[in-house]
Design brief:
Blueprint (H helix, E strand, L loop, with lengths): L1 H21 L19 E7 L6 H16 L3 E7 L2 H13 L6 E4 L3 H8 L3 E2 L2 H6 L1 H5 L23 E3 L2 E5 H6 L8 H13 L3 E4 L6 H16 L1 H8 L8 H15 L12 H9 L3 E6 L2 H9 L2 H4 L2 E4 L13 E6 L2 E5 L4 H15 L1 H8 L18 H11 L2 E3 L8 H15 L4 H16 L2
Parallel strand pairs: 1-2, 1-3, 7-8, 10-12
Antiparallel strand pairs: 3-11, 4-11, 5-10, 6-8, 6-9
Length: 442
């Protein structure tokens, strides 16, 4: 009896010890646990494509490193994958439903495809916990990441702005030309500079997306309005409608009045930037990438006279003035499989990158963001600050090839080149409509 009692006590003691061991704060695995506070350790994986030496890439990597230092209980396995191979790597793991806990995604079709495949979970809780942060984004910033009603699946850490109107204020002042705010004033300026032997607008359209991305998105929107364009994309309106033919007609008006330099279809965008910054052209319609390019290639003296605004309003048009074409850049997303302490840590990391402090550090790398802030006393370049302030006060209109099918995008790109070589807007409009219709037939 005594031996039996001793055995029972021994068994009870062992059970108690095992129970205590199971309840200890040991690491719970990559996606386990209930939070990273209280000394509990967890691990998260992070993939992104900020692998280069540009200032933006360095800023994002530094934000991740800062998170590691500030969260010693979170093991962060971060992989910086070169841009050229990033999409393929991500698609490969997506096919096997083996997504990293946190990963950078592009706004638009890529993130939509991942959502459709059931690979994403919302980060809405960050917006609910930080309402002031969400309210500080530009209008429409979350549109391309809202795949369910009242849910967001990422926060953009970049603005793809494609249609700033850069102009050389010295050339305008020296030649007594008014900076155009209406289409009539634009055509007056074009004539005035041509009369002086100065190219009105620099354009490098060798790669035919340039005229579409930098000029047509804003120009056509001024004529048609955004609602009409989205209806045309969805087959509820036609690109052969007179309103769009009229929009192409405005582009043809620039061509016919020699707004662009000779051979614009045979030089690239970088060559056009150099042509503009050397004072050979009074204006250039281009994207935020020009800020980075000029910062690297132009002298301070060349950049000093450059000002930034939006393309002029078009009298009688259905669209709004003071807008730029563009949209949300990419952001960091959360894997559907991540849970527990790993999910808490992943959300914290996403906020560390895309929250107010992260947005400011990315902006201070002279990269456009969709987050409103005061950069007057920061270290950004003067030209970047001018463009940033324009963007913060501008509405955003669609870039055509971000919404058209691939075939239709190619059609309008080539069509603008045709117009520059004497083609008719009506013919270009029909080709675009036919291409979009083929791609959207069910």
């Amino acid at each position: 009896m005594k031996k039996r009692l001793t055995l029972i006590v021994t068994v009870i003691t062992m059970i108690a010890l095992l129970t205590a061991a199971c309840g200890s704060n040991e690491p719970t695995g990559e996606n386990g646990g209930s939070g990273n506070g209280g000394g509990e350790k967890t691990k998260i994986t992070v993939w992104h494509n900020f692998a280069g030496d540009d200032l933006r890439a360095k800023a994002v990597r530094q934000l991740i490193d800062d998170y590691k230092k500030n969260n010693p209980n979170v093991e962060v396995d971060a992989q910086a994958i070169p841009v050229d191979g990033y999409r393929q790597r991500l698609s490969t793991v997506a096919a096997g439903n083996e997504m990293p806990d946190v990963f950078f995604v592009y706004a638009g079709s890529q993130s939509q495809e991942f959502f459709n495949a059931g690979l994403l979970q919302p980060i809405t809780s960050l917006a609910e916990e930080n309402p002031d942060w969400k309210a500080n984004f530009m209008d429409g910033a979350f549109n391309r990441f809202e795949f369910e009603k009242d849910q967001i699946f990422s926060a953009p850490i970049g603005l793809s702005a494609t249609s700033f109107l850069y102009y050389n204020k010295d050339l305008f002042e020296k030649n007594g030309v008014k900076v155009p705010t209406t289409w009539a004033e634009m055509m007056t300026a074009v004539k005035a500079f041509n009369d002086k032997g100065i190219t009105p607008i620099a354009l490098g359209n060798k790669a035919p997306w340039v005229a579409q991305s930098t000029i047509l998105g804003s120009l056509a929107d001024r004529v048609t309005g955004t609602d009409w364009f989205m209806k045309a994309v969805n087959g509820e309106a036609s690109f052969t409608d007179q309103v769009f033919v009229d929009a192409l007609g405005k582009f043809k008006e620039l061509v016919d009045n020699k707004a662009f330099q000779e051979g614009a279809n045979s030089i690239d965008n970088t060559q056009a930037e150099q042509y503009f910054v050397q004072g050979k052209a009074a204006m250039m319609i281009s994207g935020a990438w020009t800020l980075t390019n000029l910062a690297a290639s132009a002298t301070p003296e060349q950049v000093a006279p450059i000002e930034v605004t939006t393309i002029p309003a078009i009298e009688g048009g259905a669209g709004k003035a003071g807008t730029i074409s563009g949209g949300a850049g990419g952001g960091f997303a959360l894997s559907k499989k991540t849970s527990g302490a790993a999910k808490d840590a992943a959300l914290d990391l996403i906020y560390a990158i895309s929250g107010p402090d992260g947005q400011k550090k990315i902006a201070e790398s002279n990269s456009m963001v969709m987050y409103k802030m005061d950069l007057e006393n920061s270290s950004v370049s003067p030209l970047y600050l001018k463009a940033f302030n324009v963007a913060m006060n501008a509405g955003i209109t669609p870039v055509y090839d971000a919404y058209l099918s691939a075939e239709a995008g190619e059609s309008i790109n080539n069509g603008l080149q045709e117009i520059m070589m004497g083609g008719k807007p009506e013919d270009v409009a029909k080709k675009l409509q036919d291409a979009q219709a083929r791609s959207t037939q069910k």
